[in-house]
Design goal:
The protein is α/β, with parallel strands linked by helices. It folds into two domains: about 130 residues, 3-Layer(aba) Sandwich (Rossmann fold); about 190 residues, Response regulator (Rossmann fold, 3-Layer(aba) Sandwich). About 40% of the residues lie in helices and about 20% in strands. The protein has eleven helices and 15 strands. The strands form three sheets. Strands 12-10-9-8-6-7-15 form a seven-stranded mixed sheet, sandwiched between helices. β6, α6 and β7 form a beta-alpha-beta unit. The protein is globular, with a radius of gyration of 26 Å.
Length: about 375
Amino acid sequence: MKQRMARALRASSAALAALATLGAALSFGTAAAHAEPMGVAFVYLGNPGDAGWTYAHEQGVKAVEAQFGDKIKVTRVENVPESADSERVFRDLAAKGNKIVVGTSFGFQDFELKVAKDYPDSVFMHATGFKKAPNFATYDVRTYQSAYLAGLVAGYTSKTGTLGFVGSVPVPEVVRNINAFTMGARSVNPKARVKVIWINSWFDPGLEKQAAETLIGQGADVLIQNTDSTATMQTAEQKKVHAFGWDSDMKKFGPDAQLGACVSYWGVYYAHLVQQVMSGTWTNAPVWWGLKEKAIDLADINTEAVPPAALKALAAKRQAIVDGTFDPFAGPIADQSGTIRVAAGKSLSDPELQRLNWFVEGVDGTVPK
């Protein structure tokens, strides 16, 4: 009798334990099913449109949405000025619980940093900046690498040896790109000159068009830009000269004009960022990726307009940058006055590149103070 009762009690205990385990599993499954997606917010200077800086970021965001699906919830805010009004936008996004808040333009830096200090549980990322806080970091792509490759192609392609650069805002990022483009061109044509016209805006199609027309009038038969609209490419197409797409492929706006496009693939980093935050491995170390990480490239080369010798040189130089055997800012490098700024055997460090405020030999123009 006692044995039967003991067996019954053991069976009852086992059944209760099984039910408890099943209940816990069901409870966990329900919690997982109803887990909230992680909020990820992006602040855009303009609207994505169909080309340029904001468009390139938007393509990266779409790639991340496709990769992570319902694990994340993405919010976009467009047409946010680089002014104190952006602080309101960043604060609102943080207050709504977004775990990651991304500012995609240089002028957002101080306003975003101010908000980050008030929301320590969120990660704030800022494109192209240089400041840091425990929950605030910067990221960028090495556009100067693709600008160097574009210059190399331009040096081979130009018939006049005069190239034009439509400059946006005179910050180190843009100065780097102008210098790299110039050095790339002069690596194959030492007499090449790059004329620069500043429009002091990231996006102003009217001024971009005027600048492009002026550069063409000064003899430039290949143009490049560091601005956000397609006006330079369209002007090149109309005037029957060549140009490079910037930030994204702009071939449809200049099918005969485009020699190639300096494309930024922001999704490569955005996917990395989301995964880091999800796994708890994010740090505030600055991120600066380039050809090696496939974050940028000179894409969609016009093989009908670019000479075979240029294609061969382009492939070799691209691989050398990826392998680390070539650095566009390795010396000797002279400035406009002929003074050696980078000695042979030396290279500009990342901090020096991020403070760059002088032009290399071969640039016709000035860096506004």
